[in-house]
Amino acid sequence: MANNARAYRRRQLWGWIARGVASFEEMHDIPKPLRVALERDFRITSLRTVATTQADTGSTSKTLYELDGGHSVEAVVMRYTDRSTLCISSQAGCPIGCPFCATGKFPFGRNLKAHEIEEQAMDAVRLLAGEGRRLSHVVFMGMGEPMANYQAVIESVRRMADPELLGISPRRIVVSTSGLIPRIEQLGAEKLPVTLAISLHAARDELRDVLVPINRKYPLEALITASQGYGEKTGRRVSYEWVLLAGVNDTERDAKELGRLLRRKLAHVNLIPFNPVEDTPYRAPDRTAIRRFKEMVEAQGLNVTVRDTRGRDADAACGQLHERVMRDKATAGRARVAAETAS
Ligand code: SAH
Ligand code: SF4
Known about the structure:
By secondary structure, this protein is α/β, with parallel strands linked by helices. The chain is 38% helix and 18% strand. The N and C termini lie far apart (63 Å). S-adenosyl-L-homocysteine (SAH) binds next to strand 8 and strand 10.
């Protein structure tokens, strides 16, 4: 096939995939023999759906996928009146090991390939197309540390942003990181103005060393310099995430430290009420404590919002469904070992 014809076919194929078809058979402007050959030799997706759950009366849905090789990851679709957001995974497990996070509790599995990241987005496109909706936003806030799987994440972002593929503006793609400084600097040089979210959770090194262990390598002051550098280079306001843990990081002292760190900077603080994870020593603050902390942060002169905690019921918050499945697998494994030992 001549190059032009090949490029035309490629565009046709991607066009169909971006519109959410589930098989090559449905691509009716592609000649039948080619469709048959594609169906025989290729897969639209390598992801196998293992479980799905719904929450918030159907406006949140979460899917657990099995990857080639057996690891699993999850993705969450959140539907709002004016947009649809996908929370996506970049790794099976996470090597950072934050003590409050369900993903960090299991041994690290592996990095996802770029196509496995995109396939989560394509599956969401398919799901939403069936409801007459379009995927408008993608947040790398599922399983894994995106900056620890840098090349695959960047490649997948470029393809999701490509107008001939998924056409999602990079500004509507949020890359959330625990703070790998060299990768934040590299990201700033990509000419890919994604929104950067930094998982801060503490504004003094002594506490952040515990909550986000990578802080021992990349401490706070250098992290803020790198993050604000990203903001200046791209013209994008940086988001700072703060998971609220009762009695741990929701006091006046924390608000003041946060104020000292971010005052007069182009920054936004997102407070995320802790979504309880079993076998951790942490608790979620009550409503009053959340409101009080928000006011204390505002009093420091910072922009702050409390994040909507979608998907709390039905295991749908990031990390949770996977945890339940892992626990079930572990229980099944233990039962099998017990049975084998007994026989
Ligand atoms: N590894 C990256 C991105 C995935 S985690 C990062 O840490 O930024 C996405 C966000 O979910 C992070 O801000 C993380 O701190 C938060 N998170 C993890 N566990 C949580 C929990 N149990 N409740 C609320 N937020 C949580
Ligand atoms: Fe990894 Fe993010 Fe969870 Fe920390 S919060 S363990 S960096 S996924």
